[in-house]
Amino acid sequence: MAWNPAQYDLFRDERYAPFSDLVALGRFRPGLRIVDLGCGTGELTARLATLSPGSQVLGIDSSAAMLAQAQPLTQPGLTFRTQSIEAFVEATPPPRPSLAAEPRTEPAWDIVFSHAALQWVDDHPTLFARLIRLLPPGGQLVLQMPSNHDHPSHAIVRDVVRSEPFASQLGGYLRRSPVLPIHHYAELLFRLGIPRPTVIEKVYAHILPDAHAVLQWVRGTLLVPYLERLPTEQHAEFLSVLSQRFAAAMPDRPYFYGFRRILIAAERPPEQASI
C-alpha cells in the first residue's frame, strides 16, 4: 500500500503512546536478536536497539516511503529491509502441531516485536503459528495491534464504501479487520504451546479537536487501501462524504477518541531436559 509518512505522523505522539506499555511486557537486555515487523519510519526500532545494547536489530517494512525515513537511523547492529511481513514469516517452514516435537532452527529471533502492524495481515491463526516458529526456546513475541474496528469511524467507512458511486469504483472491495477478540489470542497462543500468554486490551484516551481530526487520523491508516483503489478524481468526493458523516456521528468538540489496542507478550517455553 502507498503509505504517506507525513499523514501518518500527524498524530505521532498518540500513535506511539502504547510503545512504553508494550516494551514493559518484554525482557530487553544486551546481546539479543530482535526483529521489528512493520517498523515504519524506524524511530521505535531505534529505541529497541537502545533498550538492548549490543543486539542485532532488524526492522522490516513493505513501504519504501516509510523506510526512506528509517535508513538514516542505520548503525552497527541496527538495519532495515524492504520486505512485507507476510514474506518474512512465510519464509519459515509450515507450523507443526506441537512445539515439543520441533527441532531448534536457526536463525531464530530472541524477540519478535511489532507495533501496530499485524492488523494488516490476514489469517491470524496461521500468522501467529508462524511467528511462534521464529522464536527459539525462551524467545518472546511482543506485539500491539489496534482493536478499534468497532468504533463509529470504522463503521461509517464500511457503510460509505458499500454505497454508490464508491462501491462500483472500488469493485466491491471492502477490507475487514482480521483482529480477533482478545480471548481468542490467549487460547490460540496456549494451543501453540505458550502456557501463560499475556493478552491485554487497553483503551488509550486521545483528545482530538473534532470529528475532522478523527478523519485525518483514519486517512493515515484505515483509508489508505481505499484511496489507493479509488480514481484520484474521486478522492475529494469520498473524503467530503466521510467528513459529513463523521461530523454528524461525532459532534463533540473536543472529541474523546477512545482507541482500543491489544497488547500481547508470549514466551516460548525453554527446552526441557531429556530424561
Q: Give a quick account of the main beta sheet: strands, pairing sense, barrel closure.
A: 7 strands, mixed
Q: Largest sheet, order of strands side by side?
A: 3-2-1-4-5-7-6
- How much beta, percentage-wise? 15-25%
Stretches with pLDDT under 50, minimum 5 residues: 94-101
First-to-last CA distance: 51 Å
Please report the first level of CATH classification, the CATH class of the domain at 5-147 and 176-206 and 257-267. Alpha Beta
- Helicity range: 25-40%
| N-to-C order of helices and strands | HHHEHEHEHEHEHHHEHHHE
CATH topology of the domain at 5-147 and 176-206 and 257-267: Rossmann fold
Q: What does this entry look like structurally?
A:
The chain is α/β, with parallel strands linked by helices. It is built from 13 helices and 7 strands. Strands 3-2-1-4-5-7-6 form a 7-stranded mixed beta sheet. Helix 8 (152-161) packs across helix 13 and helix 11 packs across helix 13 (235-249). The longest helix has 15 residues, at 235-249.
Please specify the SSE layout and strand pairing.
Layout: H1 5-8, H2 12-16, H3 18-24, E1 33-37, H4 43-51, E2 56-61, H5 64-70, E3 78-82, H6 85-90, E4 111-115, H7 124-133, E5 140-146, H8 152-161, H9 166-169, H10 182-191, E6 198-208, H11 211-219, H12 224-229, H13 235-249, E7 255-267
Parallel strand pairs: 1-2, 1-4, 2-3, 4-5
Antiparallel strand pairs: 5-7, 6-7
Helix pairs in contact: 8-13, 11-13
Task: Name the descriptors.
275 residues, alpha/beta, Rossmann fold, 7-stranded mixed sheet, 13 helices, globular
